[in-house]
Batch of 4 targets.
Target 1
Amino acid sequence: MLNIADDIIKIAETASRQAGEIILNKKGRSSFSEKGENNLVTEADYAAQEAIIKVISNQFPGHSIIAEENDLSANLDEPDLWIIDPLDGTNNYAHQIPHFSVSIAYARFGKVKAGVVFDPERGELFSAASGMGASLNGKTINVSKASSLQEAIVATGFYYDRGAKMRKTLSSIEELFEHNIHGIRRFGSAALDLCWVACGRFDAYFEYKLSVWDFAAGRLIVNEAGGCCTDQQGNPLTLSSPGIVASNGILHNYLLNIVSWDNEL
């Protein structure tokens, strides 16, 4: 019989693939609206979320769920909690930019134990379970070996607010370029940004404001691939942390010295 980690991963992978199929089928035909300034939601978000919840609830009817597009809120320290982003990168999707993902995490008492991120455009499925490593389409992945910022590609993201967080992001990017990094990338899906750190495509990533469904699965995948994720001040990352700094571990303190920020930002 499969253990709980195997069961959880299997269900999460099944749900993510079903959601990915819905998202691709609706691409270019899914109307969208603004749920906040510069923050879009599409028919595909809702349909994908419904499919994910159905798969999980059928298998684990007593489990709690937090999902981006519904009032399915639960406490972050629930004994069995699923954290779902049915379409991470909705703004990309709405503009037919082929870079978005499905993110599903499972947590026990505030600790993420399993996570899956699926990129339906590339057919790439990232998975991790606590203490069991991380994989991409079944093959083990590891973070990069870059040992200096001069060797690094750094990813970032911008919160929807165009005020202080945007200005801080821009100033951090400027300082990173002063350290002669190879480049900055801003692709618009936090879950994939984290997975790309995990598999060594990016060497580091930071973002000043995220929701728990944006990073719950991806942070576990980074950790299980040998990387490091902290909050904005270098403290352990929790499900209630406001943002994230992720790296291959080697670069983490260098990155924090540049991009760290106050809780009040």
Target 2
Amino acid sequence: MTDSVLKLFIDAAVAFGTVATAVLAIWGPWFRSVFIPPRLHIMLHTPEGDPTKTTDGSRLMYFRLKVVNDRRWLPATNCRVLLMGLSRRGPDNIFHPIPMAVPLNFVWAPSEITPPVITLVKEQILDFGYVPENGNKFVPTLYSYANNFQGLVGPNEAVRFHLEIQATNFSAGRYQVFEVAWDGQWSYEPQTMARHLRLREIRET
């Protein structure tokens, strides 16, 4: 290889490296979001319940989920969890879809200091819902509720909640489904409450 050919090769390699560096600096986040996005999923966190007291002394049994990022070196930006659909168990023991015109946003924990959308690096707890002492409904923890919202779970009822994680650089492409079934009994002891209210993930095929 002559000196002129070698110099041409080196100059071309340097130019390519310069252009590639500039492209990655500008388009790097887009490339990562398309080819190596965060890997997010929802899992049970306190399915047996988490006894909680409000500032006025009222007792609640909270149920929480957890959103996990398996690729911690790729934070998920503007991340939130939406309720995309509901289905309720009918008298035939079959779950029937409930119309929902608008998705609703779940609340990150702790709700007092966590905004509706976050940058998720490793994991974040999600307030899924609660049952107050002397209450007769499981209430999903959402920032807002539609006037015709039908996602409350009363005694001897069962509802399935279809959840989707959304982020700027992540698309789930599917829902995760969590079922709440309650017999109407309440307890401040998680082990006891777990026998009366069942929270579980449904692996739909």
Target 3
Amino acid sequence: MKRSFATALGSAALGATLIVGGVAAQGPPPSMPPGQMPPHQMPHGPMPGGMHGQHHPGVSGQMPPGQDAFGAIAEVVRILESDPTTDWSKVDLERLRQHLIDMNEVVLRAAVKATPVTGGLAMDVTGSGRTAQAIRAMVVPHAVELDTMPAWFAKTEPISDGVRLTVTARDPSDTKTVARIRGLGFAGLLVQGGHHGPHHLAMAKGELPAAHQH
């Protein structure tokens, strides 16, 4: 009888130990700071809206914006707000937004048919609707910028639904420059020159004429 009682008591003690141990194993480790969950218990999926753009553990600095136009506008706003001489009565960020839409249309939606010509490349850039309008608004003035560069000539002519852009080396025998023009193609030629950033800032500050679209 005594042996049976001792056996039962031992079994109960062992069961209690297992229960307590199981409960302890389910809780956060003792070394975890109060209120912090271990990684395997952290929720998955998108972060709450309030966490957008905040610092993340293990990542130095601010997280970059997730969209190119958003980032461009954010940078312009940062510059405007850090400049005490900004005249906010002239600021026109909507105009900049529309310009960025045009850029997006030209870069991502325009159809480009490139044909090698003597000394360079001819590109028929076409589209419909907003894309065609954006092509005319951007490519024509950009050709003027390209033509100021020392190594090449650039010109445009209207075609159905768009513009023909022709870029050639000033020296047609300069095979390296000719190869560069053809290698860059329309997309590479579109980003040539350092005027885009200053142009966007001047547009946002209301310093460009309304007729100036590029």
Target 4
Amino acid sequence: MLSNEGSPVSDLTATQPPPVPTADAAAPPRWGFWGTCGWGAAALAAFYAAQIVAVVGVLVLRGIDPEQAAPADFASLGSSSVVVAATTLSSLPATLLVLALAARLARIRFVDYFALYPVGARTMLLALACTLAYGALLDVVTYALGHPVLSPFVVDLYQTARESGTLWLALVAVIIAAPITEEFLFRGFLFRGWARSRLGAVGAVALTSLIWAAMHVQYDWLGVTEIFGLGLLFGWLRHRSGSLITTLAMHAVYGAAAMIQVAVLAG
């Protein structure tokens, strides 16, 4: 059901972002805990359905009958730049359409529901410093544990993109499409509904991070742990800044840094 907590936000034409301590507290009404769960599940269903359609389309274009495709055929597509780009780009509009419908039925403007508010330079610089520091720390820990600093998935993605001449498409998927889709769903919609439930902001950050990490089955346990930690950082940044713009930008930065790193070390 819809929750009627909170008061309307100030006019979005104002040039200053909402005050940090009260940014989420002043948010307009939203879907409650169970409504958020239901719409979140619908968005995830659309997300995966679009990806399945994209994979089937790639198989057909390669002359492979999807009904007769062997497991090896699907495995070979896992880190293909064309497949990653196709699935990522196709899931973007499918997911956003569901989330936009949820916001419309809640009778709240899209920019309000997803907290698309301006962010000050100081806040953005702090977010950038935290994001880059987290990435550097992960590299040190990964190396100390004896694991490859570069994720095999990212290496394969980069190499297949170069070989097929689709590097630009892979970059669009990693730096633009994936951040938009995942941030609108996790730090946008799910965080919004769960943070003002009994879970509170801390519980919402933890739960969204856990689900987000569990989705990244292309990585090993260390990679999934990295995603979980990144989710905690992004959740904190979203809560502190009161704006989704912060994590949209930092997610793009993190993806770009990963691609630059693999280009330098494995290129």
